[in-house]
Amino acid sequence: MSSHGPARPMSARKSAPLRGEALIPGDKSISHRSLILGALSVGETHITGLLEGQDVLDTGKAMQAFGAQVERLGEGEWVVNGVGVGGFAEPEGVIDCGNAGTGVRLIMGAMATTPITVTFTGDASLRSRPMGRITDPLKLFGAEAVGREGGRLPLTLVGAKNPLPVRYATPMPSAQVKSAVLLAGLNAPGETVVIEAEATRDHTERMLAGFGADISTEVTDEGRVITLKGQPELRGQRIAVPRDPSSAAFPVAAALLTEGSDIIVPGIGQNPTRNGIFTTLVEMGADITFENERLEGGEPVADLRVRFGPLKGVEVPPARAPSMIDEYPILAVIAATAQGTTVMRGIKELRVKECDRIDAMVCGLRANGVDIEEGEDFMIVHGTGKIPGGATCETHLDHRIAMSFLCLGMASEKSVKIDDAGPIETSFPDFIPLMERLGANFRRENT
Ligand code: S3P
């Protein structure tokens, strides 16, 4: 039994060539931010293309609990009527963010400089993840936090009555930490500054500017110095959420490893702080073309055409890690189907995602006959192009691990089973029917 109901085991095996168009849902990072910034604005925010995965729905419920009006008009179309910066009301109950690290961490930042007390919790995966990385900088604003051992959820945060602006250098490359500090800085007087040594996804900065905040980024020897002027009036916006590159990576991978495939994946976000996976795949020799490059809702997007072809192992530059941090599990699968060695270093952050993703990938790939080495912050896959398969993989309440191993089964001699496809609902609710429409050979299994 998982926290989302009974486990739903599934298996995947080799299929005929994948064909057709894969319409990927909205970007998860931008969807969370649309709801949160809409709630912190005055007036109406109209959102199209919102990801209706469980993670984002949980953020929508949380925004209602803080006093915003959040309404669904149709598929992916939502309206938020916000309460303005500093206008959050104290929720009556506990805020349950389910599986969503981004949801809980950004919401903690957004409330930390308002004098309300909020208790947060989540599913077993979220309750095991470190929150000190968020509460440490929030305490500098004057907030107080009491959590379980290691700062884990459930955790109660008391927002600062007289917040101070903060200057904070993030100790790890994390857009969630950066965003939590910036969102807290919204209701502090003066300037809040975040310094990041390595560039992480910049959706918060782009969207804050779009909502009317005074925010600027300077590239210096220390890294990116982001300065936000506190206490702006944010105004409701119209937001068209681009399609999620991290979700697109799965059908793209499936096409790259299924002989004869030729698919189109339209309108995929190509923000340079997110598109490291595509750069890496092209270096591996993948036949991907980027067509109709354009701007949508302030974000660069392109239509991808992906065709099967031989791939070779590569060394991924560690500096690229933040721009593809969620794509290493699927890259490890692709690397197993390539000829030669793929080296992935500088990926320590994978150990504190929805699960320890290095451990989960190493266990599942080894069980299916893939030659893989691991260390605290690296994975090295020795690809031979031939994957025996035949084993069951544990998904540990992690959507990306579940989708990665279903893709593995599509390239293996024997089918590959996962213990639970349920977590896929958090980020890509339509994944299974979409993949089946392209031609994937999936089967629901008994427990
Ligand atoms: C996210 C940031 C990343 C990423 C997560 C979404 C975001 O986490 O793994 O899926 O929307 O800010 P970190 O910032 O902790 O690396």
Number of helices: 13
CATH superfamily of the largest domain: Enolpyruvate transferase domain
| CATH structural fold name of the largest domain | UDP-n-acetylglucosamine1-carboxyvinyl-transferase, Chain
Provide the list of bound ligands, each named once.
Answer: shikimate-3-phosphate
Domain count: the total is 2
What is the spatial order of strands in the main beta sheet?
23-25-1-26
Beta-strand percent range: 25-35%
Average of per-residue pLDDT values: 97
* CATH class category name of the largest domain: Alpha Beta
The CATH architecture of the largest domain would be Alpha-beta prism
Main pleated-sheet profile: 4 strands, mixed
Q: In angstroms, what separates the terminal alpha carbons?
A: 10 Å
Principal-axis shape equals globular
Notes on the protein architecture:
The protein is α/β, with parallel strands linked by helices and 447 residues long. It folds into two domains: 10-26 and 242-444, Alpha-beta prism (UDP-n-acetylglucosamine1-carboxyvinyl-transferase, Chain), CATH 3.65.10.10; 28-229, Enolpyruvate transferase domain (UDP-n-acetylglucosamine1-carboxyvinyl-transferase, Chain), CATH 3.65.10.10. It contains 13 helices and 26 strands. Strands 23-25-1-26 form a four-stranded mixed sheet. Strand 4 (69-74) and strand 5 form a beta hairpin. The protein is globular, with a radius of gyration of 21 Å. The model has no long low-confidence stretch (mean pLDDT 97). Shikimate-3-phosphate is lined by residues 29, 102, 174-176, 179, 200-201, 325-326, 349.
